[in-house]
Amino acid sequence: MKTTSIFGKVILLTFAVFSISCSSDSSDSKSTGPVATDKTTFKLDGVVVTADETTATLYNNAAAGGQYLDVYAKKAGEIVLEMHMPATVGTYPAQHAGFTMADSWLTYQNGTGADPILDYFHSDSGTMNLSTCDLVGDELRGTFSFVGNNTASNKNITEGNLIVSEITHQP
């Protein structure tokens, strides 16, 4: 009889441990970091955004004396990021005011872009670090972060990962 009592306690204890180990607290399962490794991702005021599509256009800028990239990241068919930078590996300050072709100009776009003042949050500060710039293989990779301003409020763009595998080459 004593063996049955111990055996029963072991079964109950095993069941209890198994039940606890299989439970999940929903607050632990929230992702706060970018999860996609094949798409452009960033945090918008702490919330992860994953672009559906990111494309780039390469063109020559005769006035600046070099090649330049325009990058567009879309979510649900709408542009959410617009980035402009030199077409070479490097780290570029993200600034809208006083922009030159040696800097980057990063913009978070909120909405449809119908209101060019309130819908566009242009970079006041931050950086664009282009770590891969393969213009033959059509691949861009890099990281970015910036504070965007629309004259009324700020948006914080952090932990950005740029991934482009389609570049249109302009003559």
Outline of the structure:
The chain is mainly beta and 171 residues long.
Total beta strand runs: 11
Low-confidence stretches: 3-31
Shape: globular
Instruction: Provide a count of the helices.
Output: 1
> Beta-strand level of the residues, as a percent range?
over 45%
The largest sheet, given as strand count, sense and whether it forms a barrel, is: 11 strands, mixed
User: Which structural class matches the secondary elements?
Assistant: mainly beta
Global Rg: 24 Å
Helix content: 10-25%
SSE string, helices as H and strands as E: HEEEEEEEEEEE
Mean pLDDT: 81
How would you characterize the overall build of this protein?
By secondary structure, the protein is mainly beta. The chain has one helix spanning 2-22; strands at 41-44, 47-50, 53-61, 66-75, 78-86, 90-93, 105-109, 120-134, 139-149, 154-164, 167-169. Strands 1, 2, 3, 4, 5, 6, 7, 8, 9, 10 and 11 form an eleven-stranded mixed β-sheet that branches. The radius of gyration is 24 Å and the shape is globular. The protein starts with a helix and ends with a strand.
Give the helix/strand layout.
Layout: H1 2-22, E1 41-44, E2 47-50, E3 53-61, E4 66-75, E5 78-86, E6 90-93, E7 105-109, E8 120-134, E9 139-149, E10 154-164, E11 167-169
Parallel strand pairs: 3-11
Antiparallel strand pairs: 1-2, 1-10, 3-4, 4-5, 5-7, 6-8, 7-8, 8-9, 9-10
Distinctive features:
single chain; 171 residues; mainly beta; 11-stranded mixed β-sheet; 12% helix; disordered N terminus
